[in-house]
Design goal:
8 strands; globular; alpha/beta; three-stranded parallel sheet; 315 residues; 12 helices
Length: 315
């Protein structure tokens, strides 16, 4: 007999967190002798799964979850419309004054709570490479105690090396005003579940630049959203790995060398020509185009209608 219907809207997967996965194996597989995947994702006629992106949809398909039990349900963007500041110039001047920014420079903001997968070392490298053109801000500190120490070490590194990054900017000024006053919103994240950072800033007339996460961007581009200035890799002369895959100490050594060695700095930029476009603002036509698609496909209203249809199908 079938009991209640269960709908699990999956946001994060243990498979993407090695520590979590090892813990589950220890408990479920070794202690209780159960196969891990069937225990985590039971196949039942009344058990359904919602996923945020096509990668996770494929993941469940690989686990032999029936197609009829898997629903694609992206998260909504919270904003209900395009954010328009009453007095953009005055707001920007206020932001610059409160945060001690050079009013002549661009403002590039990473709207994120800094945890390790957000790849803050890459953001700091870009801040050093483009320090003459832009101020560089990150909005929030981590809450997870495990994440605090590496975050504080990066802050200390910037102080010691005299690298100008404004940390925790979101605690000193209004977040919406900050993002709407920024010239660019940037992400250097290595991993996202949904990728809200790739969408929300457009609704504040702020283009999104930075690192491309292919499995996130694939879905958004298929919806028609345009990203003129995303890079897939940061190559460093003398290193085989993408910068994001280097440990913190290697990243710090590269930042120090980029600061002190003009030729090395130039070589980094020549190895990554896409960075030439990083701080080039797209036309208003692209910004408006993206806003229309986001409001149409990722609104709370659209999400609610989709969720209602899913629940109705259980009746």
């Amino acid at each position: 007999q079938v009991g209640y219907h269960v709908f699990n809207h999956c946001h994060d997967f243990a498979e993407d967190r090695p520590g979590n996965w090892a813990f589950l194996e220890e408990i479920i597989s070794k202690k209780f002798g159960q196969e891990l995947i069937p225990a985590l994702y039971p196949v039942k006629s009344n058990c359904f799964y919602g996923v945020l992106n096509s990668k996770d949809h494929q993941r469940l398909d690989d686990y032999h979850i029936p197609e009829k039990n898997t629903m694609w349900l992206p998260n909504p963007v919270g904003a209900t419309g395009v954010v328009i500041l009453d007095d953009p110039k005055a707001t920007r001047n206020k932001i610059a004054k409160n945060l001690g920014l050079d009013p002549e420079k661009l403002i590039t903001t990473y709207p994120v709570r800094v945890i390790r997968r957000k790849n803050i070392g890459e953001f700091i490298l870009l801040a050093e490479l483009f320090k003459d053109r832009s101020s560089w801000l990150v909005t929030l500190a981590p809450k997870n105690p495990v994440e605090v120490e590496p975050y504080e070490q990066w802050k200390q590194f910037c102080r010691e090396q005299n690298i100008r990054v404004v940390f925790e900017a979101g605690t000193h000024v209004d977040f919406e005003e900050l993002l709407a006053s920024s010239d660019f919103a940037i992400t250097t994240s290595k991993q996202e579940g949904f990728g809200l950072v790739y969408m929300e800033p457009w609704l504040m007339n702020t283009p999104v630049v930075g690192r491309k996460i292919p499995y996130i961007i694939k879905d958004l581009e298929e919806d028609g959203i345009k990203f003129p200035a995303l890079y897939e890799k940061v190559s460093i002369p003398g290193y085989n790995n993408d910068y994001k895959d280097l440990d913190d100490e290697s990243q710090k050594a590269i930042i120090r060398k980029a600061r002190d060695d003009k030729e090395f700095r130039t070589n980094i930029l020549s190895h990554n020509s896409i960075l030439d476009k990083l701080l080039e603002k797209p036309g208003q036509d692209i910004i408006t185009h993206n806003q229309q698609i986001i409001l149409q496909n990722y609104s709370v209203k659209h999400y609610g209608e989709r969720l209602y249809e899913i629940y109705k199908s259980f009746a």
